[in-house]
TrEMBL record:
Swiss-Prot/TrEMBL GO biological process terms: protein catabolic process; proteolysis
EC number: 3.4.24.-
Entry note: cofactor: Binds 1 zinc ion per subunit.
Gene3D superfamilies: 1.10.8.60, 3.30.720.210, P-loop containing nucleotide triphosphate hydrolases, Peptidase M41
NCBIfam families the record matches: FtsH_fam
Species this chain originates from: Candidatus Allocopromorpha excrementipullorum
Protein name as it appears in the record: ATP-dependent zinc metalloprotease FtsH
PROSITE patterns assigned to the protein according to its UniProt record, in alphabetical order: AAA
Gene: ftsH
Amino acid sequence: MKEVKPPKRPLAYYYGIVLLIIILFNIIGTPLMMREQVTEVRYSTFMKAIENQKIDEVQIEDNRIVFTEKDKNKVYETGIVEDPDLTQRLYDSGARFSKEIENTMSPLLSGLLSILLPLVIFIALGQYMSRKLTQQMGGKNALSFGMGKSNAKLYVQSTKGIRFSDVAGEDEAKENLAEIVDYLHDPDKYTEVGATMPRGVLLVGPPGTGKTMLAKAVAGESGVPFFSISGSEFVEMFVGMGASKVRDLFKQAKEKAPCIVFIDEIDAIGKKRNGNISGNDEREQTLNQLLTEMDGFDDNTGVIILAATNQPDSLDPALTRPGRFDRRVPVELPDLAGREAILKVHAKKIKMEGKIDFHAIARMASGASGAELANIINEAALRAVRNGRNAVIQEDLEESIEVVIAGYQKKNTVLSEHEKQVVAYHETGHALVAAMQSHSAPVQKITIIPRTSGALGYTMQVDQGDKYLLSKEEIENKIATFTGGRAAEEVVFGEITTGAANDIEQATKLARAMITRYGMSDQFDMVALETVNNQYLGGDTSLVCSADTQKEIDRRVVELVKQQHEKARKILEENREKLDQLAKVLYENETITGDEFMEILDEGSDGE
Ligand code: ADP
Ligand code: ZN
């Protein structure tokens, strides 16, 4: 809901009017002659004009004489010359003349104006800029002089009737939150026993897994108001503003209780305070205010605070201690069944045709978040429209997964014949190595159509189900599969290309994790040499070992990758005929499915 504010005439409007009046006053007060184009003439010309009685009006100023001639519209000026009887002669010629008075305005008024005018302009400008800024920041009071004083702002949001049934998968999270819904329906049941509800619930998980949706669903199920604000909205330009917003938010929430307050991205304000002098004062004050507010309300007031974050480890311990956000609900990436359910929920909104195999789509989209799955469905609908159909078919969904994973097909990339051959062999290499190792998942699809992501082709491997554990051998086989592309180039062309950059990165990551985190090397046994920093955001790691050990780790990683690369090459050399055969089919068709691939593979081995 938008901010509700009484309509107010902008202050700049009044300043504008004052300014206009001053300018008008100035213009009217100015002598007529000063407003027109003035021509400079010799003093002798002026004297002649007096003699000939042509002068109409004269104004004598401090440093010049300004005059007009009769029957002429022009204004002349001339310098001052020592001329004692000028006045007499002018009088005789019948000209009207006067000596200029210091200023057209009284000295007091003009002095006052010269001070006030810049001030007025300055203030008006300031007001204008603040208004501009406020508009850019989405209607929040930012620089206005009412700083620190909060406008009556409403944070209530419509939940548009979002229910738990709209959030697919995430059953554990829903179960956890159902208790809160129950409490909001019937608080007495809980107070009777003496139980208190947690004040704060922290929803923790990677981006796009439905944390916001879940919070809205809790409000929707309980039929209570939903207050929503993002952590980053608290962090303002001025110290104290964020804290005032927190106060404001809770004041409103308490008035509307029972209700849900949802703080998205709470890590923006809730980061660990590290006691640095150079710390962010504003953030700290905001956090302190939040802690105070959470302590401030009595148990069972009916205000439940839900917060979302994808960096739970970076939160200040004061925020996660009992009595504040004491309950943590993990909202993880969906598993296979979850993905299928999410796809089905979103598919309800679009028109479909024929038999749609959601299970297959869910299998292809391994590792995708709820938001990405929603996007896949939408991309499929867009593709259907693009192709002039009025319903989505299975092919649209399959293609849109590739779009989400690898980007759109790049129609105008022209590979040379040789390049295309290399790519075909490279991708076949991956697939063949994967298929030949018993533990590797079968290939779903191989294509050598360039994508906007820069990939010239890729091999889509598909797990049969979700895998929660990987054995050492399985990881080794994965590394071998990653090296399979490059190995094929070596075996067939005896040359190597840049096409393996991504494979190299992934193989190295796996090999390193085996040694530093999974304890899969003889030498280091079960010692952690690396810690994961951001579980939900990319999972970057930092080393926790001595420099000597680092050297040893590096050596081991190289050894491990080399070993698997060697293995991949051997597999390909032993299956050279099939490699050629498969690469040829791929080169000609540009895409082959997993089934076609296995068919070719099997038919060869049957004959031998
Ligand atoms: P988060 O807050 O975790 O970053 P959101 O709740 O904003 O993620 O989810 C973004 C979008 O992704 C939602 O609007 C919804 O369309 C889709 N989505 C994510 N998770 C789910 C889910 N479990 N079920 C259905 N849709 C989901
Ligand atoms: Zn590759």
